[in-house]
Specification:
single chain; mainly alpha; 3 domains; 9 helices; elongated; disordered N terminus
């Protein structure tokens, strides 16, 4: 006859309990069962507290952090980074922020008073957004930046070059931070080569045209 694990009523609070050891069975005592509901409730409360503290640290980082610190947190979140590394980055960045403006306090005291309708509406908006995502063609159809590109490349005319550089500044540069936008536009307009060169413009055009 196959031995069966002892029930919760037969088990003591040890793990494994003495009764299960004597019977050579697996100890199935569950601390989160009804007999230990307070333990389960405390564990849930601790998790909610940690989540709340993490939210507070993230919001304070976004409000008080230097742009470089905020950009660093955003890059870590956007890339394929583990949740543990994301949390550590947020906590470490918040710890590094020394200058907190007392005139701009940030408190989570009213968080519990927010109506659930706010979160439901936000969820509905996200679902609608995902259902109607912009296509690649739609993302690339506009040129938000006015770019003077005459004479920088011979592989495309001025209009096409300006359009590709504008797309680069709109969709690539905010996440890569490899160029100074104002300096690049100034050099392209003036013809100077302090922060711009034909090879750079050709590289930008090649990068953007590979996906557009």
């Amino acid at each position: 006859m196959t031995s069966q694990p002892l029930t919760t009523e037969q088990c003591s609070t040890e793990s494994p309990c003495k009764a299960c050891v004597r019977a050579s069975t697996d100890c199935v005592y569950d601390e989160s069962s009804d007999r230990r509901r307070k333990v389960a409730e405390k564990r849930t409360a601790d998790r909610l507290l940690h989540t709340r503290e993490l939210l507070g640290n993230l919001l304070e980082t976004l409000r008080y952090g230097h742009p470089d610190q905020v950009d660093h947190v955003l890059r870590v979140v956007r890339f394929d980074t583990s949740l543990k590394d994301i949390v550590n980055t947020i906590l470490q960045t918040r710890q590094d922020i020394a200058d907190v403006d007392p005139s701009r306090p940030l408190s989570l005291e009213g968080l519990d008073d927010l109506s659930p309708n706010i979160f439901n509406a936000s969820s509905s908006s996200r679902n609608g957004l995902y259902q109607r995502a912009l296509s690649l063609q739609e993302l690339c159809c506009d040129s938000p930046f006015q770019v003077h590109s005459r004479g920088w490349t011979t592989v495309a005319d001025e209009e096409v070059t300006a359009h590709l550089v504008s797309i680069f500044l709109t969709w690539y540069l905010p996440f890569m931070h490899i160029l100074q936008e104002d300096a690049l536009l100034h050099d392209m307009s003036s013809g100077e080569q302090n922060f711009c060169s034909p090879i750079l413009v050709n590289a930008i055009c090649a990068l953007v045209s590979s996906v557009c």
